[in-house]
Amino acid sequence: MCLLHIKRAPIISLFLLRIQPENMEGLRSKGCTTAETTHTHPLRSVQLLPIVPFNRVFALVYLCALLALFYHHLQRLLSSITLVSFFINLILFISDLVLAFMWSTAQAARLYPIQREEFPENLDKVVKRSDYPAVDVFICTADPTKEPPMSVVNTALSVMGYDYLTEKLSVYVSDDGGSALTLFAFMEAAKFAEHWLPFCRRNNVMRRSPESYFESNYSSSSETVEIKMMYESMKARVEHVMEKGAIEDEYITSDEEHKIFNQWTHKFTIQNHPNVIQILIANNKNKDVSGHFMPNLIYISREKSTSEHHRFKAGALNVLLRVSAVMTNASVILTLDCDMQSNDPHTLKRVLCYYLDPEIYAKYSYIQFPQHFQGINKNDIYACQFKRAFEIQPMGFDGLGGVDYFGTNCFFSRRAFFGGPSNFVCPEIPGLSPSHEVDKPIQSSEVLALAHHVADCNYEKQTTWGFKMGFRYGSLVEDLFTGYQMHCEGWRSIFCNPNRPSFLGHAPISLVDLLNQQKRWVIGVFEVGFSKYSPLIYGIKHMGLLMSLLYSQYVFWPIWSIPISTYAFLPQLALINQVRIFPKVSEPWFLLYPFLFLGAYGQDYFDFVSAKGTFQMWWNDQRIWTIRGLTCFLFGSFEFLLKSFGISTLGFSLTSKVVDDEQSKRYEQGIFDFGVSSPMFVTLTMAAMINLVALILGLGQFLKGSDSLEGLVIQMFIAGFGVVNCWPIYGAMVFRIDKGKLPVKITLTAAFLTWALYIVASFIFSN
Ligand SMILES: O=c1ccn([C@@H]2O[C@H](COP(=O)(O)OP(=O)(O)O[C@H]3O[C@H](CO)[C@@H](O)[C@H](O)[C@H]3O)[C@@H](O)[C@H]2O)c(=O)[nH]1
Ligand SMILES: [Mn+2]
């Protein structure tokens, strides 16, 4: 059976097929020879992006310009007369070296980007519905105050509503917050699901999270009014319980429920408590109001003990992997964060367009869908969409051998958690093996006893969980690390980006939340980049040059802060002191600079708009890139250093999913939100001040008609560019009075430090 149909861009592809990386081999050989036989019902196609030839030629041209630049750099470095000029030249050289390295990593994504398409409508013509594989969904939550249970419940309902064989679907919820309130919300949700699931089926609802459905423009009828009332009353109960912080007796309706909540004894704390595993819906038992079986719904709060490291989300996912192996052991696993929801009930069919092919199942470890977000403001001022990482570069990764794992919206083959495709790592008990057949109902006492055993917090001792099996430990970005390790083991992966987003989620919408989130990522990626698994040492041996280069872009992500900080301060300080550090307009070397700048920015802009971005979005995206360079990249790197020296330990600081009304109003209006006194804002404000001062002084000289100006054009341009980028900061510093303005303390600290920097720089430059 061949389910593959390769569609290629003409002419160039013939050439490209010869030089494409071997990872595409599987797709190619199978596709070419057997596509014709099932041509009438293809399930998928692959296409090379037409931009590829241009990308390759441009990469060559740009490379030549870079070589010229470094020749010029070396020349200047060797001809430096004073120590000061030597150091300035050295800093510029290092910064440009980092830029060039990051450029080369980005090229890896531009050499072979592919786009896939699936045809789930053909599925029924090729396979019987009863042959569909079982699917286990993993949803993680960790704190009921930062991740409101109602929103987690909506996530679960949205996937429980998948258009699939309900007897083959199971939803596992991991609650690292160990909260009875979250469990209460899920017990309510299980009751509501009896009405909600048949309602969605009958009305062919596309967004099966009730909250989003009722926010949308649905057509009102007596049925919708009724179900909405049911939903609102459930929501009111959950929110009431949340407000009280406890479940009052009137909300507990049976002895069984009493027994469940009695597990929360006075000794029960978040850091120290026994396992709670609760089967809320069992698909062999519970039926919805229309008589249909429902998907399994299982709540798990794994055992925690202050003496055992719980390994954050990766630890939670590994518990889910084992408990689900004992209960249902589905061959396909979906991981979902609690801030994501299904936006398309037919997504599983799309996944089957790949996984029904045993060839694909044997070689590909996961199918990653992009993270799309709702509630992003018009121009995405904080660049929350991460278009480059979630949409553009994944196509490049995919063409080379496999997209990285984003931590959510990803369908794994269970087998991939147990060693490479040709190197099976056997779990310590046979009941956890991906090939093990579950033959007992999930509520049976044996199954439950084993489930409790494998969820114990010391179960992993003396096993290879987290190192050779399951989700990987050792990095705060367990997602990137896990996907990376799988690629090193020889797995490939698929990027699937349908027109209608399959998932929609929430991104942080306050600047400080965003920077803190990315500070955690910085630490996490460095934990990979500077480990023995670094792509430049380990990866290159296992995945080849291009894949490891591309991964390097992610694991060395924070080193952007070297060139960004240099270009945010050095040319400006030199300009203030009338010191020239770039070529004059009349020198031929001058031309390199506009070419390199416009070339990089232009290509980036093109990539961005090709992924349905707008000019303003792109502009905001590059602004946030510079802001990151001056804030979370710097501070995260520093924290990573402290951690490496054993001075501090770092945890997974959850991203808050709650915002106040004023904050979201400002966000909707596109106004930057500073508000809190984060030290990260100090460096940012300093850069804003220096750039403004440099530009004003530079313009002053210009009006005076000073001779030296010809040499300072590049510096003037950089300061001007800096000022335009810092625009929102000046407003927040001086003109605004709302709560989101820059705190006075920050402005004053930054002003003092800027002044100190200015004095020191003047002293240095005058010597
Ligand atoms: O000890 C923990 C910590 C977190 N989580 C869950 O992990 C998910 C992601 O946490 P969040 O605070 O939303 O982090 P983000 O930075 O928004 O998440 C991105 O980055 C993470 C890695 O840092 C990935 O795990 C995520 O999938 C990816 O979306 C949430 O569902 C949490 O409930 C746990 O289950 N246990
Ligand atoms: Mn998140």
From TrEMBL:
InterPro entries: NAD(P)-bd_dom (IPR016040), NAD(P)-bd_dom_sf (IPR036291), UDP_G4E (IPR005886). Pathway: Carbohydrate metabolism; galactose metabolism. The keyword Transferase does not apply. GO terms for molecular function: UDP-glucose 4-epimerase activity. Its EC number is 5.1.3.2. Its cofactor is NAD(+). It catalyses: UDP-alpha-D-glucose = UDP-alpha-D-galactose. SUPFAM superfamilies: NAD(P)-binding Rossmann-fold domains. Keywords: Carbohydrate metabolism, Galactose metabolism, Isomerase, NAD. GO terms for biological process: galactose metabolic process. The keyword Oxidoreductase does not apply. Belongs to the NAD(P)-dependent epimerase/dehydratase family. This is UDP-glucose 4-epimerase. It comes from Manihot esculenta (Cassava). The lineage of its organism: Eukaryota, Viridiplantae, Streptophyta, Embryophyta, Tracheophyta.
